[in-house]
Amino acid sequence: MPWSCCSGRWPWRTAFPRSDRRTVRRRCWWWALWSGGRWSRGGDTGPGSCSPGTGSLCFPCCPVTGTSCTPRRYDVEQPVWSAPADDAATAAALQDRFAALLGQEPDGVWAAPGRVNVIGEHTDYNGGFALPMALPHRTYAAVRRREDGVLRLASAQRRGLWEGRVEDVRRDGVCGWPAYVAGVAAVLAERVGAEAVGVDVLVDGHVPVGAGLSSSAALSCSLAVALRDLVPGLSQMSVEDLVTACVRAENEVAGAATGGMDQTVSLRAVDGHLLLLDARDFTVVPVAWTLPQHEVLVVDTRAHHSLADGQYERRRRTCEAAAAALRLTSLRELSADRLDDADVRSVLAGIPDAPARVRHVVTENDRVLDLVAGLREQDASRVGALMTASHVSLRDDYEVSAVELDVAVEAALGAGAEGARMTGGGFGGSAIALVRREEVDVVAAAVLAAFVTAGLTPPVFLEAAPSRPAGRVL
Ligand code: GAF
Fold first, then answer.
1. What is the dihedral angle through the alpha carbons of 291, 292, 295, 296, rounded to the nearest 10 degrees?
2. What's this model's pTM, rounded to 2 decimal places?
């Protein structure tokens, strides 16, 4: 059987047919509980040789599959925190690195933030509501304009230099992270011509990648603001038009059918505020964070998430099919009290998965507005309860959660968080919890312990303070 309990994830998700997974999971949990008293702290990874007090956790092998394995060692006892980079120092270092790599000084350094979405998930492409905030974690781009329509793209995190012509980007296709940068140039070239948007770029990402925190939007938005500042023909572009360009780059060049929330908050965030997005017309209203005793703790589960693997798009197409069958422009037009109408039920019954998917979208829109009201009333327990209800809906109706996200949510709630939920597209990525400031360390430690107990890769934690939008740093 292609599985070992010591592999660090819950491989039963892929290794077993759906009908068998619950049984395997239940047995593994029993094993985890039963053997819990025998786990020992130690520094040796050899079977049975853990010695106390040296600071890592040894795990026994799960006997369900019968595979032999070495006890897993985790060198993480304390939660690991991801701190935002210092803007000035990061930009100055990137400037130097750019000059060393590409032979000339850049024209400047720009940065764009990642985001967490407090509530309103999978609603943006349904014309609904969302409530994201910009993270203090940003992606930096040192950029130098060229005159020849060539793009040369490098990353501080990756090897190699990607090079191509702006006019070839759409025809030839671009893979991986360069697609998010080249895509922006290709879309903006429609306004000013390909020659005008050729650039050398060195990016330095400080938004965790694959964590559901919009590192991709941060990447494209950092170049979008740079090109607006550098290319005379783009200087009059509104921030709304920049958002549209970045969304098109992601949809048309990177191949991810995303809905626009991430680019909106990266480019239009208001420092210290959440952003109430109405995706029917992409208007935004800043919403003040009114819970000074509480903060949003982000748990990057390190279960890699991707929006370009088909699952995200499948849900989007189901929602669009449901709206069309109901003769609506988008699911935004459907209110929760109509979900039980016989005609609505009979239409949705004809589309696979639609009843549950639609229920999530419609109820989630209501939860966003309720949560904003809760914030205005400074009612932390109402805000928290709505976050948790959102998670349940995403897990059970929209089916975009993952074991890692559920473990994080359960552990955070068990340790006293007011509420917790997955954030972003799902299938891995990050969870968030609303936590009293003085309990942040306790909740993080409880989540870490739950991951270790479940045999999951230890998560990384971020403190999410609502932060500023994309712009020039240097
Ligand atoms: C991803 C997408 F990019 C967003 O547009 C949004 O749909 C989100 O998933 C789910 O709410 O972040």
1. 40
2. 0.85
